[in-house]
Structure formats: C-alpha cells, structure tokens
Amino acid sequence: MTRVEGRRRQAGRPSGGVPQRPFGQVERRTEWVRVISDDQVAAIHAAALDVLARQGMRVLHGPARDLFAGAGARVEGETVRLDPAMVAERLATVPASFTLAARNPAKSLRIGGGHCVYASVGGPAYVMCNDKGRRDGTFAEMCDFLRLVQGLNVIHQEGGGPFEPLDLPANTRHLDIYHAQIRHLDKNWQTQTLGHARTMDGIEMAAIMLGTTVDGLRGRPVLLGIINTNSPLQLDVPMAEGLIAMAAHGQVNVITPFTLAGAMAPVTLAGALVLQHAEAMAGIILTQIVRPGVPVMYGGFTSNVDMRSGSPAFGTPEYAKAAQASGQLARHIGVPFRSSNVTAANAVDAQAAYESQMALWGALTGGAHLLEHAAGWLHGGLTASFEKLILDAEMLQMMDAWFEPLTTTESDLALDAILEAGAGGHFFGTAHTMERYERAFHAPMVSNWDNYPNWLQRGGIDARARANTVWKELLAQAEDPPLDAAVDEALSAYVTRRKAEGGAPMN
C-alpha cells in the first residue's frame, strides 16, 4: 500500500511485500463538514416534505402501495402521498447505529457514529486491467477480484459482485456470485436486491453461511443491499420487492436516489438535494412500515451532468458539496448515511485520481457511514478496474491516517529532539526519530533527498504500472479463508436446486 504507511507505522506485510495495516475500522473523531447552514438544512427538509405531501411518489408495486395505505398514506392510483406527521413518526423508529455480521466474527462491522465501512466496487458491466484492456467480465476473473478484496485489509466489505460475470446465464448468475462471495471472503458482503427471488436467494444463502435459518437472521443484520429509486419520484417493482424482502427479514436497505442535477433532478444543487431527500425518505418510511426498527441507510448520490453532452460527471466540486450536504440531511433525520468514491475517468489516470480524491474528501468529511464503491470504480460505474482497486486502497489508507487524532503528549512535542538537532542540524539520526523508525522497520535508514535515481533504477514505472504489479503479487499469494465443508456442500445443494427451478425471473 502506501509508502507513507510503511514509514509511519508498524505494518502487517502479507506475502508479496505489500505494506498494510491490520483489518479494522478507524473511528473518526473529527467534526463533520457543514457546507450548508442549519437553516438551509431545515429549508431543504421542509421542501422535500412538501414534495411528498403534494406530488408524492409513483409506486409501481401494488403490495407496496397497500403497505403505504395501511400505514395512513394517501394512495390514488399509483401515486402515494405522505403527510409530514406520518414521515416524522416513521423516521423516529430508525436505529442510529447497528452492526453487520460477517462470516468471520472478527470482521463484523459497525455502522453509525464515527465508524465508516469501505465497500469495494459493485455492479459494473465491464472489467479492465492494463494487460487486456476493458472487456466483458468472466466468472473466473470475478473470483480473482474477490480474492483481492479479501486480501486488502483496508476494504471492510465486498460491494455486491465486483462486475457482471457475463459468461454465466443472467437468470442464475446471482447464485454463483453469492456462492463465490461466501467461498472467497470471510468479510461482510453485499447482496443483490433486484426483485424478490434474487433478494431471497441472498438471504437464504447468508443463513446457510452462518449456520442458521432465515428466521434466525431477522434480528441479526448480515446483508446490506442498495435500493435505487427511479428519479424523479418513482419506485419500480423490482426495487420495491427487494426492499420489502430485505426489511421483512431484518436486513439493511440503503435507499439511494440517483439524482443527477440537470437530468433526473433540478439543475440547481439545492433543488437536486430536495428531490434526493424526498425520495430517500419515502423509501426509508416504507422499510419502517414493513418492520419498525429495522436498520436502513440514507443514500446520497447527487452529482451534476456535463450539460454539453448529458453524460454524468463525478468527483466534481458539486459532487463533494452534495455529499457533505447529504450527510447533514441524513443527520437531520437521524438515519445513517451512505456516499461513494466515484470518477467519470475512462482510464486509470490523473483524472481518475483527482476525481476520486475529491469524492473521498466530500464523502468522508461529510460523515458517511458507508463508502460505496470505495475501491475499483471507473468509467462512471460501468467498469471495475484491477489497478484502480489498488490505487483506491492506497488512498483509503491515507484517509484513515488523516482521521487518526493528532496527539500532543510530551514525547510528541519532541523538545529533546529539537535541542539534540540544534540550529542547522537534521532529525534523521536523533533518538526521537530512530526510536519511531525502528518500531516499523528493522533495516538501516537511508537518507537520500533525491529519490529520482532510485526510481529510475527500479524501472521508472508509473502508478498504474506499479498497481498492476501489486495486484498480481497479492493474487499470486491469495488463499481462500477456511469454509466448513458441510456449509459449502449445503450452499452447493441450494444453488443446484435453485438453478433447476430456473433461478430468478428477468425483470
């Protein structure tokens, strides 16, 4: 991972010599950025309530409309209108924090407060690497990507299938994805929520993984799934089915409107946030109608589009501000917040780096509790990149280091070191420096201000080429975490049966 990490802390080193810190979440203790005032937050919230009361949501799923109606919403045809009192009542049952169980209990995750989950990229159509370029993904390549996610300690959660394995049938490939997630990971993993059948398959297989029943999961969140509204103001049948199944079984929905200012939302950032807030609250309310107190998250994905081409823009100043404002809106209604690490770049280049870094700062200083697509996202979400996975993981470690509190103990103030170096001296050899250096390294310190000759001697490779080398080193040394043979046999039997039944319908 980062050379900074190697210099500044004792690092665990997996085979291949890639420095990493141990697996774990860094609790952030900083104040969140407030990019808008409390009055502006209240104004956006009030406008969103007005939208839900006057315009309402178009809900295409009849059973979902029935649930809304039974809870007191006004339903006319496919339109569901929610009054502010009902919204407030249902928001009051949302838990502010919760834990997601993992196959390895030591890797279970805390969501809420100062904790954030870094989830790898999920859902692209294509895969990309330096050697083969962009292409349709295969199941074998997807399994390799999962092995890398398992081996990168800074990634806490797998993001729902790194990319589509297009060599598998569409109606059953989700079964193979779930089985691969369980085999190659002992971390928490995300499920798919496109329709009832896919969602229930994930829940059933998660129960087998943990040696319990579907009913046994109802009070034990283990799965997290993304629910996208169809902006503006529409919830379709597959998403409603997935949402209801997840909530009914005590699992976590992340309600995420896809509000791009100028396209599916008003062109002003404030207007786009009003629409996002309204749609997110409508989905959150439905989860609490299905099962009061079930964990749910507020997803923010507001960005802008290039008005010359209509294509989405990511990692922009507008995206960063929207992420920070979304965090304020989520805290205003007391719901944990999801954001993303994104870029519109088509290659692992400078654009990919600076847009992702902008997105990271916006999301993490905005208080995100789930960083979706934290590593590996490229091309506006159409592509998962092996090299981008590595470079993003390095940036995530930098962010974690930034969130560690600055300490000012007597030793940290380093008065003895300053006196030892004296005027015009240097600190390479002071006792203060060497003591800390030796905690991390057992090799002699080499002082060389000009690193350029060393870089040339090592081949002069750029970051993208280095990332290619790193992921191959990690993959060559990857070992799947142990999985009980009886559990794997039960999972295989489930997959075989469901394939024989036809899998999930194509929605």
Q: What is the rounded distance between the termini? A: 41 Å
Q: What is the correct CATH architecture of the domain at 98-404 and 489-500? A: Alpha-Beta Barrel
State the CATH class of the domain at 98-404 and 489-500: Alpha Beta
CATH superfamily grouping of the domain at 98-404 and 489-500? Trimethylamine methyltransferase-like
| Largest sheet entry | 6 strands, parallel
Count of individual helical segments:
18
Oligomer, anyone? single chain
* Rg value: 24 Å
Which strand order does the major sheet show? 6-19-18-15-13-11
Beta-strand residue fraction: 5-15%
What's the overall average pLDDT, rounded?
93
Which residue ranges are poorly predicted, with pLDDT under 50 across at least 5 consecutive positions?
1-17
The best one-word shape is globular
Number of strands: 21
**Structural category:** alpha/beta
Helix content: 40-55%
CATH topology of the domain at 98-404 and 489-500: TIM Barrel
Task: Tell me about this structure.
GO terms for molecular function: methyltransferase activity. Its EC number is 2.1.1.-. One of its GO terms (biological process) is methylation. Belongs to the trimethylamine methyltransferase family. This protein is of the alpha/beta class and 507 residues long. It has a domain at 98-404 and 489-500: Alpha-Beta Barrel (TIM Barrel), CATH 3.20.20. 44% of the residues lie in helices and 13% in strands. It contains 18 helices and 21 strands. A six-stranded parallel beta sheet has the order 6-19-18-15-13-11. A four-stranded mixed beta sheet has the order 2-3-1-12. Strand 20 (377-378) and strand 21 form a beta hairpin. Helix 6 (173-184) runs antiparallel to helix 18 (485-500) and helix 7 packs antiparallel against helix 18. The longest helix is centred in the middle third of the chain and has 22 residues, at 269-290. The two termini are 41 Å apart.
